[in-house]
Amino acid sequence: MIRAASLVAGLLLLAACDGGPVEVRDKPDNVGPFPAADRPVAKIVSPRWSTEEARDRLNEAGEVMNKAGIAKGMTVADIGAGEGYYTIRLASRVGKDGRVVAEDIVPEVRDALAQRVVRDRLDNVSVKLGDPANPKLPDNSFDRIVMVHMYHEIEQPYEFLWRIRPSLKPAGEIVVVDANRRTQDHGTPPKLLQCEFAAVGYELVAFDDMPSAGGYMARFRAVGARPEPKTIKACRLIS
Predict the structure, then answer these.
(1) pLDDT tens for residues 91-148?
(2) Is the dihedral of CA 7, 184, 88, 57 positive or negative?
(3) E strands, the chain, where?
(4) Residue 182, class by beta-carbon neighbours within 10 Å (0-12 exposed, 13-18 middle, 19+ buried)?
């Protein structure tokens, strides 16, 4: 019965991935309760994806925030905030009654962003240091969690997505902006992204091409109960 149940779960996960060229894999031995990412993981090479001036000329942040439904008074987390391109613009969008938490895992980057926040007098922004597999966000706090051009750098995506779920408010969403290319080339194929999120109990809310941001934008919402870590199966693109 356990083997049959596992097979059904795998078929349901494949269906959630819209029938794309993705398969689920059994968990390798000795990787803890969460499955390892069955794909290359890109290295962090820079806290900057492009210059802020170039991004503003394309109205990148404005388009992303509009499509993500980010509005005054919201609480938003900027994960992998880097130099703070989105942090600064999110702070302006949510206003004095809103809140932005900017997180990064590199202490020097976090410190530089904290200095920028103080210099720009952004009283509605707080900056914190997270762990690679755990941003350490408070529970039931965020209307949106934004991850821009960094998902492919997460070494343990299943644990990361599992630990971040409780941070969302009931109608909260995770917003991912990435490029449609291989993870080792600093992107995430959309079908693989959908499969990895589905494995941890998220459903795709919307998917938009986003040329101004160098790729696409996907929005996810948590559904149902958070799965037990040992039941999560890794996804893998079939070449």
Answers:
(1) 999 999 999 999 999 999 999 999 999 999 999 999 999 999 999 999 999 999 999 9
(2) negative
(3) 22-25, 75-79, 99-104, 125-129, 142-148, 168-178, 202-210, 215-222, 234-237
(4) middle
Position of tokens 């149902």? Answer: 224
**Which pair of structure tokens corresponds to residue 180?**
């449609």
Structure tokens at 15: 């269906």
- What does each C-alpha distance from 86 to 12, 58, 205, 239 come to in angstroms? 35, 14, 22, 34
Structure tokens at 29: 């031995």
Q: Exposure of 69 by Cβ count < 10 A (0-12 exposed, 13-18 middle, 19+ buried)?
A: middle
Q: For residue 128, what are the CA distances in angstroms to 4, 61, 121, 162, 173?
A: 44, 21, 17, 19, 20
**Paired tokens of 71:** 């509005």
Rg of the chain's alpha carbons, rounded to an integer?
18
Whether pTM exceeds 0.90: no
